[in-house]
Amino acid sequence: MEINTPIAEDIRVTDQNSQYDAACRRLLSDKTILAWIMKSCLAEYRDCDIKEIAEKYIEGTPQVHEVPVMPDETNAAKIRGVSNVDASRTEGTVIYDIRFLAVAPSNGELIQLIVNVEAQGQFYVGYPLIMRAIYYCSRMISAQYGTEFVHEEYQNIKKVYSVFICMDPPKNRRNSITRYRLTEENLVGNVKEPVRHYDLMTMVMVCLGGADGENYDGILKLLDVLLSNETSEAEKRKILQDDYDIQMTRTMEQEVSVMCNLSKGVMEKGVAKGRAEGMAKGMTSGILSSIKSLMETMGMTIEQAMAALKVPEDEKQKYIDLLERQ
């Protein structure tokens, strides 16, 4: 028999959140979705057509955080790329959400890029997210040693991008796209180094915000609709097809369905957990108030008041601590 303990419930919610995150990553690794991200966030593709990017400039299948469990109808819908695991004996292991190789037109010739896309649920995680993006770009450059260049062949370093898609940013960052990159600044004199010699890493923060904010258009609307846990499956399908000419494959429909079902389950469990916690807090507040009342009106000690109210032995210290804080 299965027992619904609080720990078991938390494990279920955590598992559902993990499945939801995995579905997000698989959706974002779709070739057409990546093409939209690249056109909107990567300068090299600004003047390219979405179809051109998807069919011509993205290489192979994307390396995703976990092996996809729902293969698409055709292998052409995925991209072949570099490994999403970057291991170092001294710096630890980094597992990228999505990482792949791409080529971009530049002055009539093709340049090769390494692109990383991260789906970020929480904006405040104990450190500035942009610092993690910078670290990811740095690791992608240093990891090229031994594969793209050896010894002092630094001219072979490939430019890297790290795009963070933030689904729950603070209010002042909603519906915004911000780019961070290396630039040239002359402190003395007027020197011009070719941009390609130093423009080797770019970090982009894509902060979603919903339809009630400004700038709700283009890639911001596309990603918000695609990753929303409030928009229905039918609404997503209609907006993607009508506004972005993205035909839903069977795999995309399955992933969207998974996300909708999981987000509903997580939300329901979150509401139930919130109610239970609210009831527990209300009970604690009531008992604390009764203890104070007995102490003030009857002259009881805290121990006598808790005994009269039959407070369980393992909870007495909690009320002692609460009273000391007041």
Question: What does this molecule look like?
Answer:
The chain has 326 residues and is α/β, with parallel strands linked by helices. The chain is built from nine helices and eight strands. The protein has helices spanning 6-28, 31-41, 50-57, 129-142, 218-227, 233-244, 250-297, 302-308, 316-325; strands at residues 63-64, 85-88, 92-95, 98-106, 109-120, 159-166, 176-181, 201-207. A six-stranded mixed beta sheet has the order 1-4-5-6-8-7. Strand 4 and strand 5 (109-120) form a beta hairpin. Helix 1 packs antiparallel against helix 7, helix 2 (31-41) packs across helix 3 (50-57) and helix 7 crosses helix 8 (302-308). It is elongated, with a radius of gyration of 26 Å. The two termini are 44 Å apart.
Question: Could you give a quick summary of the protein structure above?
Answer:
With 326 residues, this protein is α/β, with parallel strands linked by helices. It is built from nine helices and eight strands. The longest helix is centred in the C-terminal third of the chain and has 48 residues, at 250-297.
